[in-house]
Amino acid sequence: MSSSIFSAVPYIPPDPIFELTKQYNANPSLLKVNLGQGTYKDENGEPWILPAVRAAKEKIRTANHEYLPILGLTSFRSRATELLFGQDSDVIKDGRVASCQALSGTGALHTAGKILYRAAQAARNTIPTVYITNPSWSNHRQVFESIGFPVQEFEYTTADNSGLNMGCLTQTLTQAPAHSIFVFHASAHNPSGWDPTAEQWKAIGEIVKAKGLFPIFDAAYLGMTSGDFDTDAFAIRYFVHELGVESAVCLSFAKSLGLYGERIGLCAFATSSSTIATAVQSTLAQLIRVEISNPPAFGARVVAAVLEDEDLRAEWAQNLVTMSERIKAMRWALYEGLVELGTPGNWKRITEQKGMFCILGLRLEEVLHLREKYHIYMADSSRVSIAGLNAGNVRYVAECIDRTVREFRSR
Ligand SMILES: Cc1ncc(COP(=O)(O)O)c(C=O)c1O
Question: Ranges for the Aminotransferase class I/classII large domain (predicted)?
């Protein structure tokens, strides 16, 4: 056989989280619990179609199937931008926002990275480092490395994962060269569940501004964290409105509207002038044209239909409360279960952390044991998606963790 032109292509192992879901789906056990993938499930363990989304789909059912504009559905872009920065914000009124519809949060990060790469190349012909937290969402490093950025991690949590490592964060920001890019989780840090307080965000913002750094806000959980979108958008708005820092925001509607498969998000740059915004937006248009020509319509129409209608917007606000409250209740249920069983370990952080995830602090062999013996699937790092818990399985999960911890720690 002639040698293949692909002979030097390496085998890349499958993504661990998607692999875990595959294993979970293939497991016939009735006891199985999926705490791996970060998708919200209702109290019956089923995917939840938000009532606001159900109603929005009804409203758009006669929509045609024509191409969207290159930058995306215009009503989606306007409404999502207003949602993000606030309707009456100066950055919108002054025409300083450049935006495009994106393929969910991941697509928005990719697009933001591509634009920043081009911007750095054109301005200085040097490529800045992208700083990401350690730990972070498993895709961050490869998204930015694939564009060509050097990526550097900094310790985000204390060594025992008992909280944010503000000292290291401050030091990293202070020592980073001007124009360095920092990927911040706007709310509900994945996976640690530790977010800076408002005061800490202010301190972070001051350094970012003073040092001429560039923030990318990964905004995958706005509204899901506290149950209120505006509250969760605090850091973004503080940087943009109060500090006047140029920023990128990569907004996903996967979690907040339950539109995981629709791949709908927004990539927005808050810039310092309308002239710059116009240039950035023209570059976005050219980038989208070469990469996907124009984005998919369905998810954008759903989001626009929700945001355009006062009643649906109010319904969505309620749906966000439902999701965030259920997650908080499950945090407490797991914590109380472990405490009641007297499970060795410090579990208080389960209730202190924010958002969909927490890291339990289990050893790899314990994680594997839970998977093999009890059909409970969590990431190797013992990161669990709290949204996979419900009244029907939380006691079982607590008991299995209890048995596993006792078994392994008595060895
Ligand atoms: C921190 C973070 N950023 C971005 C994403 C991207 O999600 P999507 O591309 O589905 O919007 C996720 C998804 O889990 C995430 O946890």
Answer: 32-400
Q: Tokens 């490869």 correspond to what residue? A: 142
**Does 187 contact ligand 1 (Cβ within 6 A)?**
no
- 176 and 131 Cβ atoms separated by less than 8 Å: yes
Domains and CATH numbers, the chain: 16-48+325-402 (3.90.1150.10), 52-311 (3.40.640.10)
Active-site residue, from 114, 194, 218, 347: 218
Please work out whether the CB of residue 255 comes within 6 Å of at least one atom of ligand 1: no
Catalytic residue list contains 347: no
Q: What is d(CA 276, CA 266) in angstroms, rounded to the nearest whole number?
A: 19
Residue with tokens 């025409």: 95
Expressed in angstroms and rounded, the spacing between residue 258 Cα and the centre of ligand 1 is 12
Tell whether ligand 1 has an atom less than 6 A from the beta carbon of residue 106.
Answer: yes
Length of the chain, please? 411
What separation in Å is there between the alpha carbon of 385 and the centre of ligand 1?
13
Q: How far apart are CA 328 and CA 344, in angstroms?
A: 22
Whether ligand 1 lies within 6 angstroms of the CB of 218 is answered as: yes
Answer yes or no: 255 catalytic.
yes
Please tell me the distance from the alpha carbon of residue 209 to that of residue 123, in angstroms, as a whole number.
Answer: 19
Our measurement of the distance from residue 321's CA atom to the centroid of its chain's CA atoms, rounded to an integer in Å, reads 18
- Kind of pairing, strands 97-102 and 265-270? antiparallel
Ligand 1 and 190: CB distance under 6 A: yes
Q: For the chain, 411 residues long, give each residue's pLDDT as a single digit of tens.
A: 669 999 999 999 999 999 999 999 999 999 999 999 889 999 999 999 999 999 999 999 999 999 999 999 999 999 999 999 998 999 999 999 999 999 999 999 999 999 999 999 999 889 999 999 999 999 999 999 999 999 999 999 998 888 999 999 999 999 999 999 999 999 999 999 999 999 999 999 999 999 999 999 999 999 999 999 999 999 999 999 999 999 999 999 999 999 999 999 999 999 999 999 999 999 999 999 999 999 999 999 999 999 999 999 999 999 999 999 999 999 999 999 999 999 999 999 999 999 999 999 999 999 999 999 999 999 999 999 999 999 999 999 999 999 999 999 887
Tokens linked to 389: 């818990």
